[in-house]
Every structure is written in structure tokens, then in C-alpha cells.
Design goal:
Elements lengths: L1 H16 L6 E4 L10 E4 L3 E2 L6 H16 L3 E2 L2 H9 L11 H11 L3 E15 L2 E14 L5 E10 L3 H6 L6 H17 L1
Parallel strand pairs: 2-4, 2-5, 3-5
Antiparallel strand pairs: 1-7, 5-6, 6-7
């Protein structure tokens, strides 16, 4: 009986441990990131069905950047005001020319763009699991070139919720973890 229970626990750990593969990243070869001192975070595009999720992702990401103290970050209101001049809805798809113009307008060397690609609650056995996928990038504003990009998917499942139906993270915690996972690929 003890072997049976131990076998179930080990199998559960293996299944849960394989759920998250980590962030995918791109870093422009040879780019000197020391050049970027001041940045702007353009409001994240919300591709999910969850209302307001893009705005929450933008706030979480901006706070994480400020907390890291790696860059001087322009106030969000100034960024929104400057982006309005382009009249674009999909802010994550600014053109190179728009990124350069935005950089000049705000006096920044880099612009962070992002999308909330997925924010869903999925059924896993008797549990609901929050799944969040974020895509972030950093565009340098001298040429409008993407110098860093990262995609990360996180979920609220953990060993305790999988085995016993308890201890799940909130969707806010999952979103912060997904954004931190992206940002870690730049700051590490």
C-alpha cells in the first residue's frame, strides 16, 4: 500500500513538473544594452477574451521594471498620450518609424511592447487552472530594431492543487509570474 501511494506521488510530481517549459527569448547579437538608460512601456495589447487584462499586464510589467531598477521608466500617462498620436489599436505592432518617433517624443532609447496572448481558465480534472501567455519585446528607438523579445506561458497548477485540489495561484499571481519570467531573460 505504501509503495502504491509513493508511486502516485512520484507520478504526480513528474506530471506537474513537466507543465512549464520556461520562457523563450531572442537577444539581438552584438547589441550593447548599456546604451539603453531610459525606456517607455507601451500599453500591452490584449489578445485574450478577458476584459482589462492588457492594462493589468502593462501595470505589472511597469512595476517589475521599476523594481528591477535597471532603467529609468517614463510615466505611463506620458506614454499613452504620445502613443495616441499614431491612432493605432494594436500597440504591439508599432512600425519601426513609429517606434523611432515615439523614442524622440519621449526621450527614450528603448520602447517595451507587449501582448497578452492568452488568459484563460481551463478545466483540469476537478480543478480550474489559470493559463497566461505573454509576449514582450524591447525596440531600440534609434533604428526601430527589436533587440530583445520573450514569450512565456505560466499556469496556476501546482503539486498540491493537482493531487489534492488545493493551493492554486490566482490569475494575478500567474500573470506576474509569466511577466517576471520574460523580464528575467533580459535582466539575467
Amino acid at each position: 500500500m505504501t509503495r502504491y501511494i509513493l508511486g502516485i506521488l512520484v507520478t504526480g510530481l513528474l506530471i506537474v513538473g513537466c507543465g512549464n517549459m520556461g520562457a523563450t527569448k531572442f537577444v539581438h547579437p552584438g547589441f550593447d544594452f548599456g546604451f539603453i538608460e531610459r525606456v517607455a512601456v507601451v500599453p500591452f495589447e490584449n489578445l485574450s477574451g478577458e476584459q482589462g487584462a492588457g492594462a493589468r499586464a502593462t501595470r505589472y510589467f511597469t512595476t517589475a521594471l521599476l523594481s528591477a531598477e535597471a532603467f529609468d521608466v517614463v510615466e505611463p500617462g506620458e506614454v499613452s498620450k504620445a502613443v495616441e498620436q499614431f491612432g493605432v489599436v494594436a500597440t504591439a505592432q508599432l512600425t519601426e518609424e513609429q517606434a523611432v518617433t515615439l523614442g524622440r517624443t519621449l526621450g527614450v532609447q528603448g520602447v517595451f511592447l507587449g501582448s497578452l496572448a492568452e488568459s484563460a481558465r481551463l478545466r483540469s480534472g476537478s480543478n480550474n487552472v489559470s493559463v497566461i501567455t505573454v509576449v514582450t519585446s524591447l525596440v531600440e528607438t534609434e533604428t526601430g530594431t527589436t533587440v530583445w523579445s520573450s514569450t512565456n506561458t505560466e499556469d496556476s497548477a501546482n503539486i498540491w492543487s493537482s493531487l489534492f485540489g488545493t493551493g492554486q495561484k490566482s490569475s494575478s499571481e500567474v500573470m506576474r509570474k509569466a511577466l517576471d519570467g520574460c523580464l528575467d531573460t533580459l535582466l539575467d
